[in-house]
Design a protein that fits this description.
Alpha-D-Glucose-1,6-Bisphosphate, Chain A, domain 4, 6 helices, globular, single chain, 274 residues
């Protein structure tokens, strides 16, 4: 696509005729207090935010030592955790959003109006498919800012069981869901991160437990890519994400998920049958 069509915010005519136009709100609310406190602490001990292989059960149970924070290891890995309270949102609404927003940049910009630039799916989805089936197995290509850095990313959504989650705990989408993905560069056959957004029902809506594992052993050639084993191992040793990027991701995730929660119940009530 012409790069001149990739830009922050909305321009004249971007929302003309869009049934979701009323949900565009360019103002981002201040960060929640628990996020501000986590950022004030700075980077924490790596053992408090375990690698993916050791984190699944605590994410499912909500029993981790830290629910919001970040760490950076000597290995070049960075781990990020963010808790988002989502009043009025159900896990099924989030599943719907993940399948709904990815076919138009204007929809994607609703999510984070100060950081999201562009989105497109790699493939179409069959008619009549609903819930997680609308995004699992597909790749979303996004342009977005994490802090001041603009990235072009490929986010491949995978079944939760692929990352070790117990899908029997997700059998009722009104009570829990898990959005799991492999993330990498859109223009290079290299993946560098795993991400999880685990959403559980609460008395007031939902709690989202977001986790990111980046760099180091999380770096690998994308399936079908042409990078050799030696090249990948060399890239794994290159200095990975630093504290500045990890901190920016905490901010970005908290902002986009809190902003989404501010309008998703009303959006879903209006357009959830699409």
């Amino acid at each position: 696509m012409d790069s001149t069509l990739r830009y922050l915010g909305m321009r004249t005519g971007d929302l003309d005729g869009k049934p979701y136009a009323e949900f565009w709100n360019p103002t981002i609310a201040p960060l929640p207090e628990h996020v501000r406190q986590a950022l004030a602490l700075g980077a924490i001990a790596g053992s408090l935010l375990p690698p993916l292989s050791a984190a699944v059960e605590e994410i499912e149970a909500g029993s981790g030592a830290v629910d919001t924070g970040f760490c950076v290891m000597r290995s070049g890995e960075a781990h990020v955790a963010v808790r988002t309270d989502m009043p009025g949102v159900t896990p099924a609404m989030f599943d719907w959003w993940m399948g709904w927003h990815g076919d138009e940049p204007q929809k994607y910009k609703l999510w984070h109006p100060q950081a999201h630039v562009h989105v497109a799916w790699d493939s179409a989805v069959a008619g009549g498919v609903r819930g997680r089936g609308r995004f699992i197995g597909r790749v979303s290509y996004v342009d977005e800012y994490i802090g001041s850095t603009r990235d072009r990313l490929a986010i491949a959504f995978v079944p939760p069981a692929t990352l070790g989650f117990d899908e029997s705990l997700l059998s009722d989408p009104e009570m829990a869901t898990a959005v799991c993905a492999r993330a990498g560069f859109a223009d290079r056959p290299l993946d560098f991160a795993y991400l999880v957004h685990y959403v559980v029902r609460t008395d007031t809506g939902s709690e989202m437990r977001s986790r990111f594992w980046m760099g180091g052993s999380n770096v690998a050639a994308r399936r079908g890519g042409k990078l050799g084993t030696a090249a990948v191992k060399a890239l794994q040793r290159v200095r990975g994400p630093d504290a500045t990027l990890a901190e920016a991701l905490v901010v970005h995730c908290s902002q986009e998920m809190s902003h989404l929660a501010s309008f998703l119940p009303a959006l879903h009530a209006a357009l959830g049958d699409q």
